[in-house]
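User: what does the whole thing look like in 3D?
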Amino acid sequence: MNKIYFTPGPSQLFYTVDEHIKQALKLQVPSISHRGQAFKNIYEHTVSQLRTLVSLPDNYQVLFTNSATEIWERIIQNCVREESYHLVNGAFSDKFHQTAKLMGKNASKVEAAEGSAVNIKDVSISPEVELIGLAHNETSTGVAQPLSDIYALRDKYPDPLIAVDVVSSIPYIDIDFEKVDMVYFSVQKCFGLPAGLGVWLVNDRAIAKARALASKGTNIAKYRQLIAMADEAARFQTTSTPNVLDIYLLGKVAEDMNAKGLDMIRRETDYKSAVLYHCIKEHPNLECFIKDTAYQSKTTVVAKTNGSPKKFIDPLNKLGLVIGAGYGKYKDEHIRIANFPTHSKEQIELLVDQLNKH
Amino acid sequence: MNKIYFTPGPSQLFYTVDEHIKQALKLQVPSISHRGQAFKNIYEHTVSQLRTLVSLPDNYQVLFTNSATEIWERIIQNCVREESYHLVNGAFSDKFHQTAKLMGKNASKVEAAEGSAVNIKDVSISPEVELIGLAHNETSTGVAQPLSDIYALRDKYPDPLIAVDVVSSIPYIDIDFEKVDMVYFSVQKCFGLPAGLGVWLVNDRAIAKARALASKGTNIAKYRQLIAMADEAARFQTTSTPNVLDIYLLGKVAEDMNAKGLDMIRRETDYKSAVLYHCIKEHPNLECFIKDTAYQSKTTVVAKTNGSPKKFIDPLNKLGLVIGAGYGKYKDEHIRIANFPTHSKEQIELLVDQLNKH
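Assistant: Here's the predicted 3D structure for the full assembly of 716 residues, as structure tokens:
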């Protein structure tokens, strides 16, 4: 049976991906050299489509890693000498904080109350902090930190770099790139691609910081050194063999999204999320995990279940509707539903009809 | 025009891969959760087929990274406190040595003469060395370090871990895993898969070393900490979202190779390499870069060209036969030809016919 995956990543492939993969095989994309012109053209096309899609300013570069998880390490390795500060509102922002600590940094954090975003009034950042890390959209809990909070941080603390995890909210999120320094995501969420590619959008300020650290000898150049990555990216090259197929597919999906129009994608996302939250609110056995509507993610909808989540997951699965379990400690308490660009209004309505029967 | 890629990675896809990708799309492999049973089954199948194919002992684990380049960093990070030693016989083994140095290790090396493997008599390893790194098959130069040399190292220096780059020689290489501690490769070479997956075969001795370092606090746990990777792998899980599609495809191709029989693949490889080296030897405008036949790689054949390599590369490309240029500093001096399991005898004979015309 053909299933519809509403899991928050890996998720349903974007609806054009099957055809793009078949075309990539015809064009022998996986066989071309990553040092040749054909690959450079693919990289350039992907960057160009992505720039258009998310209105990326010229002072940002598009770098490829293998996952967003990897990017945590790259950020700390390349841009932090001693101190980082983390807004923790779920498992993934917590792991970023942990990564910084394990890498020997003085990494402090402020934590959100359960089921909420960080109260921006609780943030207090010392002058030594070099980088602020936060997740705009926590895939684990379905909480979204309002963009206005991020901008307020920038206004109050103009010096530290700001790194924003948009793993499960880009390209829905309409972020002002001038008010942050880097933004990163994986392609298996909203872009609906096979996992195995991380995308790191980095501005010149972050690269300058990496250069400054390197010149002091405190930045250890490794497998993916930011300076080397940026130098290679400037000529559409990578520091090692990349996931060429996924880079090709990302460019094609971004092109499809541009053709459809991001405005339309955003409007549909809003509509579908309203349908989902309405269903949860009215449902006798479901309850929004994030109470404050200002903090509710539009792309990752999380509900507490009355009883085991299996009461929903299992029967829906039999109907070919695959929803996610809660993340980590919430495994037996939550269901998670992805509301990504590939999910049509009709599919979400179908899902809601079935949720209402359980 | 459908081309045949004889480039030494990315290369021609293994001849069953197109169909396996189409089947993966039908089965929605890229959409399944990497935390669910369906993924565990895929991981287990891939490990089982790979174990059978290369006769991997039980005390080895199969871990997934995103590339072999990444594995250099992981090895140093997890298994070396202070000292490593490197046999350098080309650009890739040199980069591994550089990686160790950049990571702050006391990394020494012995270098091969140009166009040769390391003379094992030149190796002198101090008792402080914790790890010996070498490339069995240097994709950059087409030199193969004889396995007997590796075993001799083990006999003479039983204490350091031995890490062998088999990026472009596995599964052709018939290595005795008891005489080394880890072996690593990327899937876009002999396995003929899309790039984006590294495979790290690690024995219990290497994992014990990582544990010992961790217990002393000298091993910094990061994004891919060996202990965590091994713990997850024991239940067919990964520390972060992996390239599920490539893991699936690797299992399928290993299964196909098992069905054909590795003996047959090895015999064909020997035959095809003999045809290639014979052509180069007899050719008025080509010459083997590696003179000593004992050091000539069977899977990556490198020739010096009389004049520009473009005299071969360009006209053959027009015929749909894509061969590689020299690597790095040899770009304008060499051609490189992959002789991987996907390349049939007929394809190699066709290539040789055309080489003979130029």
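In plain terms: Chain A has a mean pLDDT of 95. Chain A touches chain B through 51 residues (CB under 8 Å).
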